[in-house]
Structures are given as structure tokens and as C-alpha cells.
Amino acid sequence: MPLPAELAARARDILAGRVEPVPTRDAATVVILRGVRASEPASRSAAVDTGPEVYLLRRKSTMAFAAGAYVFPGGSVDARDTDQAVAWAGPSPAEWGAVFHASEQVARGLVCAAVRETFEESGVLLAGPGPGSVVADTTGDDWEADRLALIDRSLAFADFLARRGLVLRSDLLKPWAHWITPEIEQRRFDTRFFVAVLPEGQRTRDVGGEADQVLWQRPAEAIELAHRGEIFLMPPTYHTLTELSACDSVADVLAAHREIVTVMPRAVEIEGEMRLVTT
């Protein structure tokens, strides 16, 4: 990917040691999946999963980072996401830390941020009254009030769950990838990617905030839209969609073996032109 002049100049300054890269912030991103159902021949009563589709939101053009890009729900870890009081069901923070090569505390924050940000940006909540259940409906004025309170940080995620008698369902998340923003960027994130299936009974909604448009799209179709210049995808989003496009169903995504390898694109000069590469 060729770099624009401003970033190319910054890349040269960093490579020459004239500028120090800014530190990263831990963040989590969740790919919400749903299967697309197609009717089978009349001789069979069931339906066939022809999906998957993924939920994408377009960041407002006024955003300081990734303005105008179509992304998955996600965001930075809040310091309170590491709260030991968060009710938890599923793989432990220690187990998640082993998967993502992170400390137990960081892993706790990442999983909590994944569930919290997904609710904030899509209305989907990966939590339930117990370890084998999930909230069936998150619509209504009371849910919306809590969502807005989480966004403005007047409500901690642990308090939100406790007040509603809910436990975080870490078993509804699958680890997918680990991307670090290139050193040339002014805002940098150390982001772990998760995938999760839209819980039965729940539905996404256009909740506004940092996004001005949302859509459900098959991964291959989203990539085609990007090739036609109709949507803009950041490299991690494009790469993730490419991987998901190889899966014929949601079940295939969940069954996919994932070895989490850290990827940090870097700037290199090729024949006098600064480019961003991932290898």
C-alpha cells in the first residue's frame, strides 16, 4: 500500500530515528456473525446456512482514527475492564492470556472490552443470567439508557452486569487475530480480534455514536465493494474478511483452527516510494 506524502515523511523520520513512535493502547474488536438461511427443496423441511454475513459499521468522517472506514465493533480497553468483580462464565482470563500471549490482567480487560464495545456499538450483548444462557432481547429504553451510560463512562461494565444479574459469556467469543497499528500512525492500538455469533433472539441496530451507517454483508461481497471503491476497508479488516470469505458457514468459522500471530504492518521504501507492507 503506497503511503500518502504526510505519512511517508513521518515514516522516513521514524526510520531515521528523528521521531519516536507513539505507544499503543490495548483494544478489542469483535466480528459479529450470522448465518444466511436459504430454503431447501420441498422434500426437506430444514433450511441451509449459506452465510456467513458480518456486521460492519462506517466510522464518521469526523473521527480522528480510521475516518470513513467500515470496521467491526470494537474499541480501547477501559481501565475498569480489568475489574476483578466482573461476573464471568467460560474460559478464564488466564486461558485467554495464554491464547493472546498476554498477562491475565490484560486478557481480562480485552475480553471485557470485547463484550462491552460490542454492546455499545451494536446493541448485541454476550452475557446472560447464567453460564448456559444469554440475554434474549436488549431493546427498550432501560437498555438504551445503560448503553449510553457505558459509552460516556458514567457506568462501569462490572456494575452494569451486576445490577442486571448477568455474567459475561467468554465462551461465546472465539479468538481470531492480533494486529498492531503501524509505528507511523499518530494513534496506535494493540488490538485482539474475536469472532462471535449473533445470539438467538437478539438483533443489531443502528445505534449511532461513532458510526453513521451499518450493514450486514457477506465477507466476499464486502471485499468486492472495496475493490470497486464503494467502501473503504483498513488492512486488518480487509485481511479478516478475506479469511472469513473462505468459510462456507458460521459453523466453518467456529471450527477454524487459529494460531494467533501478531501482525504489525511496517513502512519500507521501495524504489523511492514509501509503502506499507505486512510481511
Structural account:
- This protein has 279 residues and is α+β, with helices and mostly antiparallel strands.
- The chain has one domain (5-277): Nucleoside Triphosphate Pyrophosphohydrolase.
- The protein has helices at residues 5-15, 93-100, 104-122, 141-151, 157-164, 219-227, 235-244, 250-255; strands spanning 25-34, 37-39, 47-49, 53-59, 70-71, 74-76, 88-89, 127-128, 167-169, 174-180, 189-197, 211-217, 262-263, 266-270, 273-277.
- The strands form four sheets. Strands 1, 4, 5, 6, 10, 11, 12 and 13 form an eight-stranded mixed sheet that branches.
- Helix 2 (93-100) crosses helix 3 (104-122) and helix 6 crosses helix 7 (235-244).
- The longest helix has 19 residues, at 104-122.
- The model has no long low-confidence stretch (mean pLDDT 89).
CATH architecture classification name: Alpha-Beta Complex
**Which whole number gives the mean pLDDT?**
89
Using the coordinates above, name the CATH class: Alpha Beta
CATH fourth-tier homologous superfamily: Nucleoside Triphosphate Pyrophosphohydrolase
Assembly type of the shown chains?
Answer: single chain
Main sheet overview: 8 strands, mixed
Protein name: NUDIX hydrolase
GO molecular function: hydrolase activity, acting on acid anhydrides, in phosphorus-containing anhydrides; metal ion binding
Keywords: Hydrolase, Magnesium, Manganese, Metal-binding
InterPro entries: NUDIX_hydrolase-like_dom_sf (IPR015797), NUDIX_hydrolase_dom (IPR000086), NUDT19 (IPR039121)
